[in-house]
Amino acid sequence: MNAEKKQNIVVAGGGVFGTSMAERLAWNSENRVVIHSIEPDVVESINRYHKNTKYFPTRYLNRDVSATGDYSIFQDADVILLVIPSKFIVSFSNEIKNHIPQGRNPLVINLAKGMSDEGAFLTENIPFKRTASMKGPSFAIEVLNGFPTAFTFGGNIEDYHYVKDVIFKDTSLMLDHTDDVRAVELASILKNMYAIAIGLVSGRYNSPNVDYLVYTKAVNEMRGIMKMYHCDDEIMYRYCAIGDLGLTGLNDLSRNRTLGMLIGKGFSYDQHSSATTIEGHRTTKLIGETIKEKGVEAQFPLVTALYNLMFEKASLNDYLLAVFK
After folding, report:
1. CATH assignment, 7-179
2. Of 32, 66, 71, nearest in space to 52 by CA
């Protein structure tokens, strides 16, 4: 790989995380970074004012970061980062595939955390030859602020070294690696669900003792679900698993933890009436139904109790009794 050649990086998604990743990647002078957004106001704001005023109204971005809504930007991409809601990943990938010339083989990295509505792993349904999944403990505002941040790169070892040594050079973004892409995807899916489970007891008890009791149970259940899906359960020791679960389950910046805390304090939640997608809510339904179909509820009391609370009209007391057995 010729490190002196400018690397064309397209960040698909101009929301908080896409903007933050674009800013950090622009620290590397060998990257040419463009945000692709379907929101015209975001594109205009970035190009005219060097700010994403919709999501970060007070923050200026690197002047080397530009934005566009034109799909032709993908035709010269060396790396495409997918940073859009998980339910749109597959359809969006099929769309941009039409704009990439035959013979070009960009590296397409999925950063979305979730499953498709059918319960499929997203990266396995992206229509490109070179795909990877990248997840880790990474709140967007801290990425934007330049704090050292780490991800697990799920993909082949050559692409891992390319991203680590060429794309992430001078960015303070760090990686560990596994070739089990499905395990990386699954870890990022499960941690959202278990963050709700931890948030519930935080809202009820406000006790570090209780938080870490449930956190430990969550780690063990995640390992069990990894095995159920025939994934490498050693992934639990990577950034995407124990790291991201800790960040999401124990920090109040997390929307999934916050949802759990609100329910724990007695508030109700209706996904259909909310403008904010909470991935853990969708995951609880998908994984909870799978566990019930397999008849293994006893092996996964946390997710079973959470599913019953959210979808079977169980009470908060029922949830707590099941968790503390």
Report:
1. 3.40.50.720
2. 66
Q: How far apart are the first and last CA of the chain?
A: 55
Chain-wide mean pLDDT for the chain?
A: 93
pLDDT tens digits along 70-86 = 999 999 999 999 999 88
3-class secondary structure, 11: strand
* Spatial distance between the Cα atoms of 224 and 169, rounded to a whole number of angstroms: 36
The pLDDT of residue 274 is above 60: no
pTM for this one?
0.91
How far is 192 from 177, CA to CA, in rounded Å? 21
pLDDT given for residue 275 in this prediction: 42
Phi, psi (rounded to 5 degrees) for 156: -75, 160
Give the model's confidence band at 272: pLDDT under 50 very low, under 70 low, under 90 confident, else very high: low
| DSSP one-letter code for 188 | H
Cβ-contact 254, 279 below 8 angstroms = no
Residue ranges of the domains in the chain? 7-179, 183-323
Picking from 60, 36, 24, 63, the residue whose alpha carbon sits closest to that of residue 167 is: 24
Longest dimension (CA), the chain: 61
Distance from chain centroid for Cα 59: 23
Single out the residue of 270, 255, 257 nearest to residue 311, CA to CA: 270
For residues 196 and 305, the answer to whether their CB atoms sit within 8 Å is no
Class of domain 183-323: mainly alpha
